[in-house]
Design a protein that fits this description.
Length: 286
């Protein structure tokens, strides 16, 4: 059954539905706390449940769609709970839904079955079998949840102090452009893989011609766009930029080096590609 794609989808849907109710319940139970703490507790509780489901199913990749699903749920829930309305709030929700639905669809498109998990998790399990579950809980599940939580805080502040001005529109433009950049880069990659089946092929066209990770660039700038939203309503809380900053550093010093190391081992000619391209910006390198 684990090799059935349909079975895997149904199981993951059930897991996330249960995680949703757990998160909402915890958010409601701790109603006397500040909204930041309520979101964190609900988010962490849902993450623990998803992690345990991954343990039972023997697949840490059960967590993978959480990255794109949680912000959509949190922002929509906060907007409904606050009862605020306005053009700025609608723009933020539109941007987050566009980003979240697109990214979740991309996960669904690439999902095979519950018998396969992310190559990085396989490496961790092979190198550190005795402490893999600790790595899975702390590094694969909880750490990304905390990073995204930090990225969401500026958006939560904006939903509480909504505004609509030129900076708000700028935030929307950055978010929409970021999600579109991810969409284009993923479509180009999917097309390349369909036309060039098999391992070891190296894409060098479109956005990938001058950038090794244009999809990561879109993910990074998406959360800076949400931060710009906040600046349009509550610039005095500028320090919440720590969230998107940590997210940026995570991609630059963890995700990108891991991906480059793997590509260097499995894709002939990657060393030349590495020297001739930038990590993120799709601009020709001198």
């Amino acid at each position: 059954m684990k090799k059935s794609r349909a079975f895997g989808f149904n199981i993951i849907f059930a897991v996330y539905l249960a995680a949703f109710f757990i998160g909402i319940s915890l958010f409601m139970i701790f109603s006397e706390l500040h909204i930041f703490w309520r979101i964190l507790i609900g988010d962490a509780g849902a993450t623990v449940f998803v992690y345990l489901a991954g343990v039972v199913l023997g697949n840490a990749s059960v967590y993978d769609p959480y990255w794109s699903v949680a912000p959509v749920v949190v922002f929509t829930g906060v907007a409904l709970a606050q009862g605020n309305a306005g053009a700025g709030i609608y723009l933020l929700l539109l941007a987050v839904w566009y980003w979240g639905v697109r990214l979740t669809y991309n996960w669904a498109y690439t999902f095979s079955n519950l018998g396969k998990q992310d190559w990085r998790y396989d490496q961790f399990k092979e190198k550190f079998p005795r402490i893999f579950q600790l790595i899975s809980f702390c590094g694969i599940n909880m750490f990304p949840t905390i990073v995204v939580f930090g990225c969401m805080l500026p958006g939560v502040v904006f939903l509480e102090n909504s505004a609509f001005n030129a900076i708000t529109v700028l935030g929307f433009v950055v978010c929409a452009a970021s999600a579109t950049l991810q969409l284009c880069s993923d479509l180009q990659m999917h097309k390349f893989r369909r036309e060039n089946p098999g391992a070891g092929k190296l894409i060098r066209r479109g956005l990938w011609k001058h950038s090794r990770h244009p999809n990561y660039l879109g993910e990074i700038t998406m959360w800076w766009g949400v931060y710009i939203f906040m600046l349009s309503a509550a610039p005095q809380m500028w320090y919440l930029g720590i969230g998107p900053l940590v997210n940026t550093l995570m991609f630059m010093f963890i995700s990108i080096p891991l991906a480059d190391k793997r590509n260097r081992n499995i894709r002939p000619g990657f060393d030349i590609y590495y020297k001739e391209t930038r990590s993120l910006l799709p601009l020709k390198k001198k």
